Amino acid sequence: MPRPTTAQLAYGSLTVVLSTFAMLLLSDARSGTGVAVCCAAGLILGLLVAVTVTLPAVARVKSAQASDRSPAPAPVPEHLAPRPAARRPLPRAAGGRGVREAREATLRR
């Protein structure tokens, strides 16, 4: 059995304390039975919160697994496919050399 995470312990404990306190204040319970019912409801609510804290991670894993099983996308028609950008020639410096060659020539001196 896996151990509870820190988040589960924190959220569950906080829920038990706060919900029990709120129910006791709102219900104005004075008998032992009323207090016991409020405490039991707080414990159940805290347990539900502690268990559901990890559900979003499980849901993400399930949705990722479901998307892995999805069929491959249909091929894009050739007339709609993106075309590669045309390569422009580099500007020429004086003497017919490319800019890069001209820079290299000036650095060699």
TrEMBL record:
One of its GO terms (cellular component) is membrane. It comes from the Bacteria. Residues 62-109 are annotated as: Disordered. It is a multi-pass membrane protein. Residues 98-109 have a biased composition (Basic and acidic residues). The chain crosses the membrane at residues 9-27, 33-59. It is found in: Membrane. Keywords: Membrane, Transmembrane, Transmembrane helix. Pfam families: MMPL (PF03176). Residues 14-65 form the Membrane transport protein MMPL domain. This is MMPL family protein. It comes from Actinacidiphila alni.
